[in-house]
Every structure is written in structure tokens, then in C-alpha cells.
Design goal:
This protein is α/β, with parallel strands linked by helices. It has helices spanning about 1-10, 25-30, 35-55, 75-100, 115-130, 145-160, 170-175, 225-235, and strands at about 20, 60-70, 105-110, 135-145, 190, 210-215. The two termini are about 35 Å apart. This is Ditrans,polycis-undecaprenyl-diphosphate synthase ((2E,6E)-farnesyl-diphosphate specific).
């Protein structure tokens, strides 16, 4: 592990503070094994453990994982039910280890649609880890980027209606304060596994200037080497944040 840290620290660009991952390919991985899709989701939990361990060991500030989108309710009922049960079991089995390793767990998304049982697991897990100051692990569940922005706009509209906010005071900073993960650094790097090249309604506000990294690796096969490859690719990027190429560099 120390060798991996040295390789990355020697790169010409700083490490990302906040990495977000679209965990894609569980179903296709299971199909290649001749098994049902839920088998792939279960296998994907092992990759989550690897990713969290890697992020914590490399001292990232935050890791956000796209576990269940607001559009995933359209999947077959049997698969959705299996995913919900897997979520409950994962919270039960992993939260103590997360707490032991000083990881703060946050669930972002509209959890009101989940069962009371799952909502209680979420509350219990977040409460247990809320004072940890190591890696912040965000699990996006029943989350959509458009939903996130809309719920933020509604909060501002409520403030305007109550008279505590003037329309002229609605700024980028004001809206940002109502969006999920506003207390964290913006996402620096988005990784998507599974070979698809799209964002899929994930963190639309938070990834405005993020670097994108796509890999054909299916999520259950995602490991420390894949993660390190993404960080090494990030280290080679020139981040301009809307500015121009520095003097002496090749313009694109």
C-alpha cells in the first residue's frame, strides 16, 4: 500500500479530494457467470469494501457511490426487492467496521420511499458514525441529480415565501448550500465502470468541473489496481476550471 501512495504522490497533479463512482456492470457480470442479476449485486458489495478501504488508505476526503438511482425503481420488482434487502444486510454487516476505521457514513437521496425497516437502519448507521472525522462515505440511494437540484430550489422558494430570503439573494452559493453534500468539497473525479460513457443523472450540480474517467471493468471486478489507474489518469489531467491554458502549454 505504501508503494501505491508513493506512486500517486509523485504525479504532477494533486490527489482528488472527492471521488464519485457510478458502479455499473453488476447485471452483465452475473450474466457472464450464467447467474441471476442479484448475484452480481452481491458480488459488487465486495468491490465496495475494496473501494472504501482504498479511499481511506489514500486519505481521500470523500467517496460517493451511486448505489440506487431514482430511476432504478423501474427495474423488475424481484430485483428491486433483492436490492433493498441487500442494502439492509450491508448496513448491518458493514457499519461497525466503518465506525472502527473512523469512516463517516451518509446516505444521500430521498429515503422516504424506503421501508421503515431500512430507514431505521440508515438512521442508526449515520448516528453511529456521525462524529468520525476520517473518510466521508456517501451512498447515493434513491438519488437523482435533477431531484437534488429541485429539492434545493424548493428550500429556497420556501425561504422566499417565508420572507427570510429575497429573490435577489438567490445566488449560486445560496443554491449550493441546499444541495446534498454542500458541506464537502466538490467532486474532483467521477469514475464509471462497465464501459458506458454517460452520467446517468448522477450529481449533476456537484460534478460541474469534475474530471471523468470511464473503464470497461465491470463493477464486481473493480479493485485497487483499477482505482489506482483512475487516480493516475487524474494526475495527468490539466484542470482549468473554465480558464485558459497556461502560457507555454499547448492550447486545446
Amino acid at each position: 500500500m505504501s508503494l501505491e501512495k508513493q506512486q500517486i504522490s509523485d504525479a504532477p497533479c494533486a490527489m482528488p479530494r472527492h471521488v464519485a463512482i457510478i458502479m455499473d456492470g453488476n447485471g452483465r457480470w452475473a450474466k457472464l457467470q450464467g447467474k441471476m442479476r442479484v448475484f452480481g449485486h452481491k458480488a459488487g458489495v465486495k468491490s465496495v469494501r475494496k473501494a472504501v478501504s482504498f479511499a481511506a488508505n489514500h486519505q481521500l476526503n470523500a467517496l460517493t457511490l451511486y448505489a440506487f438511482s431514482s430511476e432504478n425503481w423501474n427495474r423488475p420488482a424481484q430485483e428491486v426487492s433483492a436490492l433493498m434487502e441487500l442494502f439492509v444486510r450491508a448496513l448491518d454487516s458493514e457499519v461497525k467496521s466503518l465506525h472502527k476505521h473512523n469512516v463517516r457514513l451518509k446516505i444521500i437521496g430521498d429515503v422516504s420511499r424506503f421501508s421503515a425497516r431500512l430507514q431505521e437502519r440508515i438512521r442508526r448507521s449515520e448516528t453511529l458514525t456521525e462524529n468520525n472525522d476520517g473518510l466521508t462515505l456517501n451512498i447515493a440511494a434513491n438519488y437523482g441529480g435533477r431531484w437534488d437540484i429541485i429539492q434545493g430550489v424548493k428550500k429556497l422558494a420556501s425561504q422566499v415565501e417565508a420572507g427570510s430570503l429575497q429573490v435577489e439573494q438567490i445566488t449560486e452559493e445560496a443554491l449550493n448550500s441546499t444541495i446534498c453534500m454542500s458541506e464537502l468539497a466538490p467532486v474532483d473525479l467521477v469514475i464509471r465502470t462497465g464501459g458506458e460513457h454517460r452520467i446517468s443523472n448522477f450529481l449533476l450540480w456537484q460534478i460541474a468541473y469534475a474530471e471523468l474517467y470511464f473503464t470497461d471493468v465491470l463493477w464486481p471486478d473493480f479493485d485497487e489496481n483499477t482505482f489506482e489507474g483512475a487516480l493516475n489518469a487524474f494526475a495527468q489531467r490539466e484542470r482549468r476550471f473554465g480558464g485558459t491554458t497556461p502560457i507555454g502549454a499547448n492550447a486545446s
